[in-house]
Amino acid sequence: MLNIKKNHLGKRIISLVILACMAVPGVTVVEDFCAPVIAEAGHRNADEERLSGQRMLEEHRQGSSVKRAKKDSLEYRIQKTLVEANPDKLNFDDGKHERWVDPLYIQIDTWPNAWSNGSTIIMTTEEVRLCSIRLLDEEHPYRPFVIRKDPEANLGVTSDIASVLAHELAHFANKDTMLTGQSHKENIREELQADIDGMELMDKLPQYSPGSMAIVHMKERWYDYGPSLDYPSNYDATRNCLDYIEKMSGNKVAIDDYGRIKVNGALFMDDGTIHGTPEEGSRQERTIYLAGQIASCMKHKVWHKANFVSIDAHEIIPAIEKGTKTLVSIVTPTYMKYLGVFDCPYYYKPDSELTEHELYEKSVVNYIENMIPE
Ligand SMILES: [Zn+2]
Q1: 278 C-alpha vs ligand 1 centroid, how far in Å?
Q2: What would the pLDDT profile of 151-182 be if each residue is shown by its tens digit?
Q3: Which residues contact 187 (CB under 8 A, 6 or more apart)?
Q4: Which residues are CB-contacts of 48 (< 8 A; sequence separation ≥ 6)?
Q5: 285-304 per-position pLDDT tens digit
Q6: Which of 102, 206, 221, 342 has the fewest CB atoms within 10 Å, i.e. is most exposed?
Q7: For residue 191, what are the contacts with CB-CB under 8 A and spacing of at least 6?
Q8: Domain locations along the chain
Q9: How close is the Cα of 316 to the center of ligand 1, in Å?
């Protein structure tokens, strides 16, 4: 994929590393690495890898404003949840590990993109915005660029941001930037694998759906990316994610290219989708989010009716107004996955007091509960 890429340094003249060595006191690098040589295919050690990440940061700073994300920012808090939920694969600088991830950097930019190299991860402001807008669909063709009033109140937005960061963190976990000078074919393989491994990082947290990795690729279609030798096509990247969700579910969840789903061979509701709303998200966003979470529940063998829980969404997501929406989850003592937020009040109200939209949303909640096996 083009907009979520790691920085490639293979076969470039790296004499600038001398400056980087001087600019980063305390970092030890081997002498000959600092010599002006052409980088050949091979491995970097942890110090060399970190230096190449710092050099990437310096390069970006020459043309743009790049600042470390604030500790209370949504993006940093999402990165932190992913790192802390995956201690076997990820860590910040804790003094115990040779390699670590730094708190991410935000680059002011009008183009959506993210990069990772060693400990350094950069995400552009436009990439964050891309995650915050709803996907264009036939139901709301004139409102493609709705920005959610409060991103924290929307599961889709936080999960989309998580998928961008999870992809970059997967490059770190896979040590992709310790390698230099790979072939185009190998770079494409690493990109597809970073999506899959990123989905596994997200799987550890209740609020992030593996489906969001596919959704972000779908959103990228608004941007006119040209073909690249080092990145899969947008279609291949999207399909790779959808296929992996099917695999997670043991082939019990199927998703077509339009985001219509079948669960255990049965089309979901009437047309395979949850209808979109300007606030909750488009059909594809809501449906594929759900599909990813169902697949995760099936993978963890908790897809049972006894584990179905619906509560007032405000109880778990304080940014959602009390008494307005229902959060539907699968919960066991050791596992939790949100299935979605629905625009109907949790507390009992007779159907006669619900709007047509609320009645539809309630019917989706009931449908989900009824489709879950005992
Ligand atoms: Zn990548």
Answers
A1: 30
A2: 888 999 999 999 999 999 999 999 999 988 88
A3: 8, 229, 230, 231
A4: 29, 30, 33
A5: 999 999 999 999 999 999 99
A6: 221
A7: 1, 5, 230, 231, 232, 237
A8: 17-243, 300-374
A9: 32
